[in-house]
Specification:
Elements: E1 8-11, H1 17-26, H2 33-38, E2 45-51, E3 57-66, E4 69-77, H3 86-101, E5 106-110, H4 116-121, E6 125-126, E7 130-136, E8 148-151, H5 155-166, H6 171-178, E9 185-190, E10 193-201, E11 206-212, H7 215-228, E12 234-240, H8 244-252, E13 257-260, E14 263-267, E15 277-279
Helix pairs in contact: 5-6
């Protein structure tokens, strides 16, 4: 679908960050500059903006590829330009990039209720829901004392652990996390082998991405997260509904989870291990 004649589309750059932040905040979404910069990197991502004749940015959307798996995100159109086909035009550019330039066979996204009809027109269907759960600091976690915890600098090792579980190669993002001293990447090892990791984020505070081979590993990483984030009274997790061990673990902790059915996808499923996923990064990045 073409944009209306009075609008233009182009690739975003770092000079647009303030405008992109404003669009996200206009719909109640957090605006993390690090996450926006991740989709400005042309090595594996594109961020498209629609502009008025005066240059004002009135729409945005991004795509990022992790090999066969791609994510669509940051889809926002300003109130005064909605229902003009702006979102559809941006989405088509993202799909073209992910499908044809990056050869992604699976596209995923996290949709709002208002956005679902648009994505459905382009072949996206609802997939397994997530379970949102908030763990209080007082949760009866039982850390596994046999695990070794430490901040990780070996990105290759973490990437090798992450890829078959997440379903795609997040090496560039993991390198960014490992280099961020304010948001340490904590890795749990058993007998030298990685058994899970979590990215601690004081912007919230939050935790994610968060992967663990067992609930015991998840408990150990969460206990470490609370120890390193003393201001955090609680941490929120987003488990795939197919993480049966994780769902059972939450029940045993006395934590109630709330299903959320905003996950949508198109294309064939990639190999992954949902039973190890305890938290996402952000919606736009997976």
């Amino acid at each position: 679908m073409a944009l209306p004649d009075d609008l233009r589309m182009r690739l975003a750059d770092e000079s647009d960050l303030a405008a992109l932040r404003g669009l996200r905040e206009s719909v109640g979404w957090s605006a993390h500059d690090w996450a926006m910069r991740a989709v400005l990197d042309p090595s594996d991502a594109r961020c498209f903006v629609a502009t008025e004749p005066g240059g004002r940015i009135i729409g945005v959307g991004s795509g990022i590829s992790y090999g066969a798996l791609g994510f669509v995100g940051n889809m926002v159109v300003a109130d005064d330009h909605r229902r003009r086909g702006v979102g559809a035009a941006i989405l088509e550019e993202i799909i073209q990039f992910l499908d044809n330039e990056r050869d992604c066979t699976r596209l995923e996204l996290f949709a709002t209720g208002d956005g679902r009809p648009l994505y459905a027109r382009y072949g996206f269907v609802l997939t397994g829901p997530s379970a949102m759960a908030t763990l209080p600091r007082r949760a009866p976690l039982a850390p596994d004392g046999s695990l070794e915890l430490g901040e990780e600098g070996n990105v290759d090792a973490v990437s090798s652990y992450d890829a078959p579980r997440f379903g795609g190669d997040r090496r560039r993002l993991l390198a960014m996390m490992a280099a961020d001293q304010e948001r340490p990447l904590i890795v749990a090892r058993r007998d030298g082998d990685i058994a899970g990791y979590a990215w601690l984020r004081p912007d919230g505070p939050r935790i994610g991405p968060f992967l663990a081979d067992t609930p015991a590993v998840a408990s150990t990483l969460l206990a470490e997260a609370f120890a390193r984030l003393p201001e955090a009274d609680e941490l929120t997790l987003n488990l795939p509904s197919s993480n049966t061990p994780g769902s059972r673990w939450l029940t045993e902790l006395g934590v109630t989870s709330t299903p959320w059915d905003g996950r949508m996808a198109r294309g064939s499923e990639v190999e992954r291990r949902d039973d190890t996923i305890y938290g996402n990064l952000v919606g736009a990045l997976g």
